[in-house]
Amino acid sequence: MAADLVLTNAVVYTVDAERPWASTMAVAGGEITADETIGPHTEVRDLDGAFVMPGLVDVHNHHAMAGRADLFELTFGADAGFDDILAAVRARAASLGPDEWLTGGAWASTLVSRLSTVAARRALDDAAGGRPVALADDSRHNRWVSSRALELAGITAATPDPAGGVIVRDAGEPSGLLLEAAGVLVERVTGELTPEQHRRASRRAIEILHGFGVTAFQDAGVSTDILGALKALDDEGELAAWVVSSLLVNDPIFGFDPVGAPLLEVAGRYRGEHHRPDFVKIFLDGVPPTRTAAFLEPYLPDDVHGGCFHGSTTMPPDELTGWLLTAAAAGFSAKVHCTGDASVRQFLDAVEQVRAAGYASTRFQVAHGQFVHSDDLPRFAALGVAADISPFLWVPGVIPDAIAEVLPAARASRMQPNRTLLDTGALVAGGSDWPVSESPNAWEGIAGLVTREDPHGRRPGALWPEQAITLAEAIEAFTLGGARACGLDDVTGSLTPGRSADFVVLDRNPFRTSEVAATQVVETWFAGKRVFAR
Question: Is the pLDDT of residue 191 over 90?
Fold first, then answer.
């Protein structure tokens, strides 16, 4: 049977160990084919030496959140200072109604102490003209809100801290800084998007992802609204990506409802041709800058927590193991958020029990795993646990700077042990955690994996350079590694005959350039159809 499309005179990097390089590639019926027969209707393209590789796989993002931010919210970068944020709020507020919500982000984790005062909240009130404001930080775990937002959420000086959250106070009064689950109190009153707006958010996010060459991704925490949007797009033939959704078991930051067992029970109705709601998602701890991550050794001393504070997990070991067993029995794999080494160890211990119970094929992912005790590194491969390395925190940057303020220097500098994970046989999968990473541009992450340096040269030095990996390993982490981790390797991840024709054409050969981070996608193809062209 003749091919639909044949690419010739190309440099094709297949990420297929049996045939890593080729000069031609054929597509038939939306799949890669070994049959390069040219018929009367075959499109033949001479690529003049252009570089072709599989479409990128982002194993961890929040696409709907990013799409919503792009379409409906105030956005500013993590390099924005306090005064910059107030100026942005003032400009946006001028276009809003008198009591209309202003939402957005993301402020830098290094601003935590600056935003922990009533004076800062009153400055926000003034900039917003008294409107309700909720701005997320760069981790998306914490919120800075205005007085009107506190009022609408019913938060007063007498409001107790919710389980898993902290209402940061200044002389007993809510400062406006809400950590972890405390932010959910505000999230629940900010207003809902319509079903059409949810579809627009997902559609817009996928358009952006296509521009960066992403053809498959795992959303790391979804609501029924997001599931509904993905199912609608899939049913309408508009979901031009492989999407794996992660169903929330617990929800300390988003305010979604339902979560847990009721969400798992309805997941099957959202499955489609390109959408697989196959994972559960558990938040086992928070984030280091706000001391909500769980560590084996203590944080640096401070006036609030003292000198022996380790943080804590969101649930005890037996509860975690119970959820993993419940999920596995129902056919779900699991992605578990762990940023501290104590939470990583608790999760690995739980997986060990699940494997012993006979669940050999269930996929497990440590989400983030920025800090892993050396004793636990070999356990990833031994237990079949994938390392979802996300966001791009293996180079100097704002979040590493914030972590260095709360952990001893020797520990803070030992983030993302990617080299050791690979050397011990672990499956390493690349993720952006977009919009935590300001863009889902995997080439910035790939360049950083190879050098451990800021790919844009904004910050000097390297972050634990001994953990650098090769370019081929980094590319595999963002293609076949990601596909394997989220269960898509049956359809994508490499340019192997029989897999979906998901590929990108680049503006350069990344193996022959000193500027990997500057790599741009010229074309993106999904299932044999071009979905982006520069």
Answer: no
CB 105 within 8 A of CB 136: yes
Q: For residues 476 and 499, give the distance between their C-alpha atoms in angstroms, rounded to a whole number.
A: 16
Does pLDDT of 325 surpass 90?
yes
**What is the average pLDDT across 37-43?**
95
Q: What is this structure's pTM?
A: 0.94
Question: Per the structure block, which two tokens stand in for 84?
Answer: 């910059």
Q: Distances from the Cα of 510 to the Cαs of 66, 165, 246, 418, 468, in angstroms?
A: 27, 44, 32, 20, 17
Taking alpha carbons only, the member of 235, 184, 241, 181 closest to residue 207 is 241
Listed in sequence order, the residues at least 6 apart from 184 whose beta carbon sits closer than 8 Å to its beta carbon are: 162, 165, 251, 252, 253, 254, 255
| Predicted pLDDT of residue 192 | 87
Residue 388's closest CA among 218, 507, 134, 160? 218
Exposed, middle or buried, 475 (CB in 10 Å: 0-12/13-18/19+)?
Answer: buried
CA distance 138 to 205: 18
Task: Give pLDDT, residue 1.
Answer: 79
- pLDDT, position 380: 98
* Three-state SS annotation for 401-421: HHHHCCCCHHHHCCCCCHHHH
Query: Is 21's pLDDT higher than 90?
Result: yes
End-to-end CA, the chain: 31
Neighbours of 184 (CB within 10 A): 20
Give the integer Cα–Cα distance in Å for 398 and 400.
Answer: 6
Q: Is the pLDDT of residue 263 over 90?
A: yes
Eight-class DSSP state of 4: S
